[in-house]
Design brief:
By secondary structure, the chain is α/β, with parallel strands linked by helices. The protein has three domains: 20-182, 2,3-Dihydroxybiphenyl 1,2-Dioxygenase, domain 1 (Roll); 204-261, Roll (2,3-Dihydroxybiphenyl 1,2-Dioxygenase, domain 1); 263-316, 2,3-Dihydroxybiphenyl 1,2-Dioxygenase, domain 1, CATH 3.10.180.10. The chain is 23% helix and 30% strand. It has helices spanning 20-33, 55-66, 107-110, 124-133, 173-179, 193-196, 214-225, 271-280, and strands at residues 48-52, 69-75, 81-88, 91-97, 116-120, 137-144, 149-155, 161-167, 207-210, 233-234, 240-244, 251-254, 265-267, 284-291, 294-300, 306-312. It has a four-stranded mixed beta sheet. A hairpin with a 5-residue loop joins strand 2 (69-75) and strand 3 (81-88). The radius of gyration is 26 Å and the shape is extended. The model has no long low-confidence stretch (mean pLDDT 83).
Length: 316
């Protein structure tokens, strides 16, 4: 049989990790079909559950105002949403339409709500403006507060009050009391598990990576991650060396391949976008996997050095 002329175009099969919202929705649908709880083991013991008048419109609003991702929706024969789930800044929010026949009513029916939802965001001003543009009513515009946060309060079109919070400075209880003399401020903080342990002497303070060509590695990783490399030069042992100075833990890259790199997992916010970027920069994707901790992609840079990209699972 003659050889297939298109065989030369065949590419290796590389598994693609599904979008997290699709994976969450599929997991919820399977759990529902099997009569299992949609909340994964180890999930939060307490969740927010909202009643709204017009759940589909509410989901659209939360998507536009807060960047929510819908993960599940169950609609009854009467057209009302009996249960839906969205994630907002990593937090699961459940909601449903009004069902007054079983006592489930929204703030619009009650004429108000005594409950506020506190949402931590990266930019209070931008989130507040986006929510108001999407139909929310501003109650208190963004302003810095004595407790070290920048806050804003708004009411969504369905009657729920949201307090947006952006930390801007760390304020001790003593300083808070000085700034707000009309209040008595008390605070007790239990030590975390990490604080209860003795501080080790061998904490990571620096590390090195190896690459055949330091300048080429600097071009690849600065374009991929935004790392800032100092100009390459001779190291203490005569090898070419470049220091990276804009990461939380400083490190360097050298060209001594007899001193190979440790294996690193670089945390990213959008795994699929970074996979595309690696290929654009001449790198290679070896494998893509999905674990309980999140999505992972084994990569090779444009010189064949392996590394992993990792996008943490929600709440991990």
């Amino acid at each position: 049989m003659p050889a297939d002329p298109l065989e030369a175009l065949r590419q290796p099969v590389v598994p693609i990790a599904p979008r997290q919202d699709f994976a969450a929705e599929l997991r919820a649908r399977v759990a529902d079909a099997l009569g299992l709880s949609p909340v994964p083991a180890g999930g939060p013991a307490l969740s927010v559950y909202l009643c709204v008048r017009g759940a589909p419109a509410a989901i659209d609003f939360y998507r536009e105002a807060f960047g929510a991702v819908e993960t599940m929706r169950m609609t009854g024969d009467d057209g009302r949403v009996g249960h839906a789930e969205i994630t907002v800044e990593g937090m699961t929010v459940m909601l449903a339409d009004e069902h007054p026949e079983i006592g489930v009513v929204s703030p619009e029916t009650l004429g108000g709500t005594p409950v506020s939802l506190s949402l931590h965001v990266g930019d209070v001003d931008a989130t507040y403006a986006r929510a108001v543009a999407a139909g929310a009513t501003g109650e208190r515009p963004p302003a810095d507060q004595f407790h070290g946060n920048r806050n804003a309060t708004l009411r969504d079109p369905f009657g729920h009050r949201w307090m947006l919070t952006q930390p801007v400075e760390a304020v001790s209880a003593e300083e808070m009391a000085r700034r707000a003399p009309d209040y008595t401020v008390t605070a007790e903080t239990a030590p975390s598990a990490a604080e209860a342990l003795p501080t080790p002497t061998g904490q990571l303070g620096y590390f090195t990576l190896s690459a055949p060509d330091v300048g080429r590695a600097a071009a690849f990783y600065s374009a991929l991650f935004g790392w800032h490399f100092e100009p390459p030069g001779p190291g203490s042992t005569g090898r070419t060396y470049s220091h990276v100075d804009n990461t939380a833990v400083p490190f360097g890259i050298h060209d001594a391949m007899d001193d190979p790199s440790p294996h690193h997992y670089y945390r990213v916010d959008d795994l699929q976008a970074m996979i595309v970027r690696v290929r654009e920069l001449g790198g290679e994707i070896v494998a893509v996997d999905e674990y309980a901790s999140g999505g992972s992609a084994r990569c090779r840079d444009d010189q064949g050095v392996e590394f992993d990209l990792w996008q943490a699972a929600p709440g991990y």
